[in-house]
């Protein structure tokens, strides 16, 4: 398989073409941001801002649903949306896979889930 069939571009954005169910994605996020995959200094690089609210390939959000820090990423292609949110302080990882464009409804869903889990 050539590189072009593994990694593409849609609308100027890269697309990795990964396939996983929500529990697998949540476990991956927990392990990645929990320091179980990369050396500790590389994990810090992922979660250190290099642009507003963005680390190396990582979205960084603070204050959402009472969390101090959330890391992860949104994704979407051809009518599907994905959200991976990891709270490394509480050692919590959540993944949502949806049909549709995502947007505010997906953000509301993650906030509700985080508040429920924090209770």
Describe this structure as you would to a colleague.
The protein has a single domain, classed as 3-Layer(aba) Sandwich (Beta-lactamase), CATH 3.40.710. The termini are far apart. The protein is an alpha+beta fold. The strands form two sheets. Strands 3-4-5-6 form a four-stranded antiparallel sheet, with helices on both faces. The chain is globular. It has helices spanning 3-6, 22-33, 40-46, 104-118, and strands spanning 8-10, 13-15, 59-61, 70-77, 80-87, 92-99.
Topology:
Layout: H1 3-6, E1 8-10, E2 13-15, H2 22-33, H3 40-46, E3 59-61, E4 70-77, E5 80-87, E6 92-99, H4 104-118
Antiparallel strand pairs: 1-2, 3-4, 4-5, 5-6
Summarize the structure.
By secondary structure, the protein is of the alpha+beta class.
Main attributes of the structure:
119 residues, Beta-lactamase, two-stranded antiparallel sheet, globular, disordered N terminus
Biggest β-sheet: count, sense, barrel? 4 strands, antiparallel
Give helix % range: 25-40%
Number of strands: 6
**Helix-strand sequence:** HEEHHEEEEH
Count of all domains: 1
- Span between termini: 47 Å
How many distinct helices? 4
**General form:** globular
Roughly what is the average pLDDT, rounded to an integer? 77
Helix/strand class: alpha+beta
Q: Give the CATH architecture.
A: 3-Layer(aba) Sandwich
Give the CATH H-level superfamily.
DD-peptidase/beta-lactamase superfamily
